[in-house]
Amino acid sequence: MEKFKTLHSRAIPLPVENIDTDQIIPARFLKATDRVGFGKNLFRDWRYYKDGSINDEFVLNNDAFHGNILVAGSNFGCGSSREHAAWALCDYGLNVVVSSFFADIFKGNALNNGLLPVQVSESFLQALLKGISEDPKMIISVNLEQQLITAERLNLSEKFEINPYKKLCLLNGYDDMDYLVSILDEIKEYEVKK
Amino acid sequence: MGKTLFDKVWDSHVVTTIKDGPQVIYIDKHLIHEVTSPQAFNELKERGIPLLRPNQILATADHNTPTKDQHLPIKDDLSRKQLATLTKNCADNNIELYGLGHENNGIIHVIAPELGVTQPGMTLVCGDSHTSTHGAFGSIAFGIGTSQVAQVFATQSIVMEKPKSMRITINGNLKKGVLSKDVVLYILAEITANGGTGHFIEFAGEVFENMTMESRMTVCNMSIEMGARGGMIAPDKTTFDYVKGRKFAPKDTDFDQKVAYWKTLPTDANAVFDTEYTFDASDIAPMITYGTNPGMGIKITEKIPEDTNQSFKKSLQYMNFSPGSSLENLQVNYVFIGSCTNSRIEDFRVAAAYIKGKKKAANVTALIVPGSQLVAKQIQEEGLQTVFEDAGFELRQPGCSACLAMNDDKIPEGEYCVSTSNRNFEGRQGQGARTLLASPLVAASVAVAGKIVDISKLV
Question: Which element (helix H / strand E) includes B366?
Answer without folding.
Answer: strand B365-368
